[in-house]
Amino acid sequence: MPQEHAEVFSRNCGECPIRHRAVCARCEPDELAELDMIKYYRSFEAGQTIIWSGDQMDFVGSVVSGIATLTQTMEDGRTQMVGLLLPSDFVGRPGRGAAAYDVVATSDLVMCCFRKAPFEEMMGRTPHIAQRLLEMTLDELDAAREWMLVLGRKTAREKIASLLSIIARRNATLNMQGPKGQMVFDLPLTREAMADYLGLTLETVSRQVSALKRDGVIELKGKRHVTVPDFERLLDEAGDDSDGGMLA
Amino acid sequence: MPQEHAEVFSRNCGECPIRHRAVCARCEPDELAELDMIKYYRSFEAGQTIIWSGDQMDFVGSVVSGIATLTQTMEDGRTQMVGLLLPSDFVGRPGRGAAAYDVVATSDLVMCCFRKAPFEEMMGRTPHIAQRLLEMTLDELDAAREWMLVLGRKTAREKIASLLSIIARRNATLNMQGPKGQMVFDLPLTREAMADYLGLTLETVSRQVSALKRDGVIELKGKRHVTVPDFERLLDEAGDDSDGGMLA
DNA sequence: CGAACGGTTGATCAAGATCAACGTCGGTGG
DNA sequence: CCACCGACGTTGATCTTGATCAACCGTTCG
């Protein structure tokens, strides 16, 4: 049986770790106060399904800590990840009743949830929220399109390198470092989840990770702890042009 | 040399064929009048590149008539389509200076362009525009995610069937018919463009189209004119569950 | 301890890529 | 008028990448 998270979170938005990146990033104190009235926290453990595709959704919200995946599954069991949710990412689609994808917690996870109806109502008259959500959605769309190139045209090796560089870069921006030189991080995904991300089998993922290690593109400590000695080299293996998608 | 379009378009938004579906769908008469002051029409011929990836963009806009594609290209020439733009679809990303993708007119095309800076300024104080753009962006994100499943997990035959069903469905909603029973339409894409859409080679596209024809899933008159005798059958071949993605 | 889970590695197979030839249609210029 | 060319499409033969099937390892957890 799931044991309740012992950890206690401050309800105070001022202390919120994702305050400056989430949907509420642009909100004024009075707007935060209003959001506060319709918000609540929920904890999930690793492996738990947060939302089932097709379910009626009565909340939207932000990932506060932990990692979740958005996945689509065909009747015969083939599954494709279509979103990777990190802290500050938004869950749920205002204006739609039913969830379109499964949302699964990959690690232990905390969400800041807003009751859906009041949130939608508030969004309608609070440009600060609507604007921020638009911005975040446009970013997600860009990420999805980058991902489509990976899925449609890259080789298995390039796919793995692409995924590693994406995780490395996200990690760097989270720690507010530039993405260059040596980088170290932990893989937040199992080999199977990586396969579902990249449209591969887990065997192919395992082989290509080993190959990148053998060729010195990455170093591994255990199965998950990755060191990238030369980020440019990794980008090269990913087939990305060197600028790495820096957009004005 | 490109010959100028002889056709003349009414500047009048009241007669605009995409009025009810575009970014301006929710605008009041006074807002339309303001948009009118920053708008202009541009025509492109089939094959013409509208925007090059990396270019500075000085406008955003809506496709009024015709079809365009968003594509990404790797240094070695591999290309992946990441968006298919039909009438009423929006082009450009407010808040970003440089284009992230190539935009190419697949057919002769007319765009209703807005000068970027004034449009962004106006969006900041016109919720009707921002809200509609958010809604359209969320729809595009959903489409991109559906597409990711196609790219990552479907077989070549399923990919072709998926593309045909998407085009058939879009066509049906444009003509305001329900997507069922017999459907007839023209393919707006060459075999090569279909391949770039689906992450296949043009040879595989050709073979699978022939196979679907041989198996009676579709009928062809010429290379482009398609008849789908049984839409359910097509959905089945696409591996989609029967509801066809009808979401509340 | 044994089972479950995550991961690695090997042998074999098949879907789709690649290379190549050919067909059709619609201009265009001699 | 016809010959030629280029764009688009089809089909065949062969090759390669990644899938599939299978065995096995190490860790963790009842």
From TrEMBL, chains A, B:
Keyword Transcription in record = yes
One annotated GO molecular function: DNA binding
Q: Which InterPro entries match?
A: cNMP-bd_dom, cNMP-bd_dom_sf, Env_Response_Regulators, HTH_CRP, RmlC-like_jellyroll, Tscrpt_reg_HTH_Crp-type_CS, WH-like_DNA-bd_sf, WH_DNA-bd_sf
The Cyclic nucleotide-binding domain covers 23-140
Q: Where is the HTH crp-type domain?
A: 154-232
Q: Name one Pfam family in it.
A: HTH_Crp_2
A GO CC term assigned to this protein in UniProt: cytosol
* SUPFAM superfamilies, alphabetized: cAMP-binding domain-like, Winged helix' DNA-binding domain
Q: Which UniProt keywords apply?
A: DNA-binding, Transcription, Transcription regulation
| Protein's name in the database | Crp/Fnr family transcriptional regulator
Origin organism lineage: Bacteria, Pseudomonadati, Pseudomonadota, Alphaproteobacteria, Rhodobacterales
